[in-house]
Amino acid sequence: MKPNDNSHYSHKLALREKYAEKVEAELCFDLFCGTGTFVQAVWAPSFSQVVCVDKSRKQLEQLPGLPNVTAYQGDNAKLLPGLLVKYGAPDIVDLDAYGWPDPLVHDLLTTSVTNKRFAVVATDGGMKVRQRGSPNALPECYGFGKNLTFAQYGAAMDAAAVRAHTMLRAWATIGGKAVVDFDAYVCGSMMYWAALFEPQDVT
Ligand SMILES: C[S@@+](CC[C@H](N)C(=O)[O-])C[C@H]1O[C@@H](n2cnc3c(N)ncnc32)[C@H](O)[C@@H]1O
To answer: Rounded to an integer, what is the distance from CA 189 to the centroid of its chain?
Structure first.
């Protein structure tokens, strides 16, 4: 089987190790778990419980069978609400996506109710997918409707980290949270970021 794409592995690993240290080591959601590279390297050794999702049965067959790892096959966006009900709010969420992680980040930040700090570690390949000729539309969760597209060459990668940080702050505010830490590596048309959120006292 073709191994899963883990380009820029050292950056991805460093972000995960750094943000794993910033939260309680209880519950991790790895929502694009693939064959479990980061489950083995970081999540299962550090967290009491790891909940994995991948849409590919073939990928999941290679996931290590570990007592603290539970795997689900399916579309992560559809499974997420049920996982939040079943397991509660996670301490860390791994979104190692091929394209935009933004719709899931939006849902997590605006709808997940939690009274604890939590982190998200994401791979943002949205601009790369766009360069490969996939639909050029902005993710709908940006709030501009279905049909707004990027102008050609209109969104440069040197603005990518600012774009992500700005959206995170806006979505966190909607969900009663604040961004208290943020790191991003931009490598060509890929971006790898991690953020730490804290609930805000609304009283
Ligand atoms: C970049 S790979 C993740 C690699 C993973 N970190 C590993 O160690 O193997 C992206 C994975 O997301 C899965 N995927 C893509 N869209 C998905 C979706 N909507 N729901 C669940 N999994 C999805 C793919 O099957 C693929 O395994």
So the answer is: 17
Burial of 138 (0-12, 13-18, 19+ CB in 10 A): buried
Q: Please give the distance, rounded to the nearest whole angstrom, from the Cα atom of residue 201 to the centre of ligand 1.
A: 35
Tell the CATH superfamily of the 9-199 domain.
Answer: Vaccinia Virus protein VP39 (3.40.50.150)
For the chain, domain boundaries: 9-199
Tens of pLDDT, residue by residue over 131-188, are: 665 566 788 888 888 777 777 656 678 888 999 999 999 999 999 999 999 999 998 8
Q: Is the model's pTM score more than 0.85?
A: yes
Nearest CA to ligand 1 atom 5: 34
Return the number of other C-beta atoms located less than 10 Å from residue 93's C-beta.
Answer: 24
For residues 195 and 179, is the Cβ–Cβ distance under 8 A? yes
* Amino acid at the residue 28: C
**Residue identifier of the C-alpha nearest atom 17 of ligand 1:** 55
SS3 71: strand
Cβ atoms < 10 Å from Cβ of 79: 18
Calculate the CA 123 to chain-centre distance: 7
